[in-house]
Amino acid sequence: MKLLLTGGMGFIGSHVAYGLLKETNWEIVILDRLDISGNPARLTETDIWEKEKHRVRFIWWDLKSAVNRYVSREIGSIDYIWHLAASSHVDRSIKDPISFVMDNVVGTTNLLLYSKNIGIKRFIYFSTDEVFGPLVNSAFKEWDRYKSSNPYAASKAGGEEMCVAFENTYKIPIIITHTMNVFGERQHPEKFIPLCIRKILSGDKILIHSDSTKTISGTRYWIHARNVLKALLFLNKNGVNREKYNIVGEKEISNLEMAEKIYDIIKHYYSLRGKLVPKLNYELVNFHSSRPGHDLRYGLDGTKLKEMGFEYPKTFEESLSKTIIWYLENLKWLNK
After folding, report:
1. pLDDT at residue 209 greater than cutoff 60
2. Known catalytic residue: 260?
3. Is 270 a catalytic residue?
4. Which of 6, 50, 236, 320 has its C-alpha lying 20 to 30 A from 215's C-alpha?
């Protein structure tokens, strides 16, 4: 089998590529433009690269431009497309929304146009929980209404709607996934976990987004990138075309609790080595005033995948600890 993986040098994409090299015999063509989030070292510094790199081909391409015949020829015949390439940072989308429209709507449309005439078996569009907006009561199911709170969310929703349109118009075998708060090694340092590690080590203040009373912090569901790969493989085999699926984390955790967990792991790690770390320095801030366009609470309903027979690994605590320790032993990844 041969897979075209967009964004394969990004954080989640590189974990997906790494997992595929470990768990399958697939050939992988990575399409990436190597911008702020793309870094080949995410893959080339792994323990499996030298042995399996013959199965990987990298092509530089920015999907804001159509996939022309030269790039198509370089890609060659493929069986699957997993579209993970995206601009994904909420703060940057608020400052520069048009770039997110270009990357996440126009880029997705260009990939869909390329895919409609090449006879692929599966196209997976990797979307986000943020398309649904803030969670108030029960977790969102796959086909619930959208209520995007920021340009990033809206651009991902726009990409989803283009996928639905291409399913209906051109009969492309598309599956859409929603995932929330993926974590793991080699994540961009602007993301919450590496950001917390860096600030804890330096003693800097961590801003924890809360409600207007500054007493209740926001909450998220967290999932390690390796478990996202497991879900994608399951869906590639068992998913139904023209359907959407939520890939959820193990449990809901407040942002403050997450910061405290990170601190406790760091403190224990250094105490075993006779070292001290500064006290946890944080402040609860009103998320509406400090980060307009952000949602206090997110939540997805993962029942659909469970009922299909997919089992979510119960490894959150272990995965978080291993991830943080990895950063402490690879500090350069906190400064990229």
Report:
1. yes
2. no
3. no
4. 320
